[in-house]
Amino acid sequence: MGAVKLTKNDLKKQKDMLRQFQRYLPTLQLKKQQLQTVIMKTAAEAEALRDRLLKMVEGLNGWIAVFAENKTFADGKRIEDLVVPDKVVCGEENIAGTIVPVFRELTFREAEYDAADYPLWVDEAIKHIRNISAGTAMIKTLENQLELLNGELRLTSQRVNLFEKVRIPEAKENIRKIEIYLGDQQTSAVVRGKIAKKKRLGAVV
User: Fold this and answer.
1) Engineered SS bond to 122: which of 7, 118, 143, 148, CB 3.0-4.6 Å?
2) Considering the chain, what is the average pLDDT of its residues?
3) Which domain holds residue 160?
4) 78: Cα separation from own chain's centroid
């Protein structure tokens, strides 16, 4: 901020700025609180999803024996060929002024196969693998949300600190200096006026 002029105009300017800062600060503080709340909720959601995903993967341990049959399937017809992710479909949500992606679904490439060519467990295996893939994509989306929200929280916290620790105290100090100076000027003017009046009265006598 530039040098402050010790004038009534600058006093008004500083007071207007102070009012603006004090009006804007609560909005920033509220946004900071909202972001912190959403970040905690999103982080907890991601952690819970990781736990569920881990249990789903561990649940496949019982399938190890039947999965061995996968190697006997013809090239291009193995399970990994039947479960090929295509794209992650996301929407958008405005959280405290920050646009973040919201997971909708994970699509897969169309895989045509004759159920008669596979044992019965394959359909169930495909379903489990797709659920795990979708869960992984959802976690990635939540991690992306957290990255964006944490970035916005850092900026908001910096602004809050700037207003609380710099702009508002600076404006208050400038107002104090200008008011002291103008008060001194006014006192000096009154004193000079009284002296001049006494001199005029003495001249009359």
Assistant:
1) 118
2) 85
3) 24-164
4) 43
Q: What b-and-e string marks burial along 133-171, b requiring 16 or more CB atoms within 10 Å of the CB?
A: bbbbbbbebbeebbeebeebbeebbebeeebeeebbebb
3-class secondary structure for 9-68? HHHHHHHHHHHHHHHHHHHHHHHHHHHHHHHHHHHHHHHHHHHHHHHHHHHHHHHHHHHH
| Side-chain-facing half-sphere of 183: CA atoms under 13 Å | 6
Domain count across the chain: 1
Residue from 11, 22, 29, 23 nearest 173 by CA: 11
Residue 77 near residue 113 (C-beta atoms within 8 A)? yes
Alpha-carbon span 49 to 103, nearest angstrom = 13
Report the alpha-carbon distance of residue 176 to residue 115 in Å, rounded.
84
CATH number, domain containing residue 124: 1.10.287.3240
Considering the domain boundaries, does residue 187 fall inside one? no
Q: What is the pLDDT of residues 112-167, one digit of tens each?
A: 777 667 777 777 878 888 898 999 999 999 999 999 999 999 999 999 999 999 99
Whether 160 is in a domain gets the answer yes
pLDDT tens profile 78-121: 777 778 888 999 999 998 889 999 999 999 888 777 766 777 77
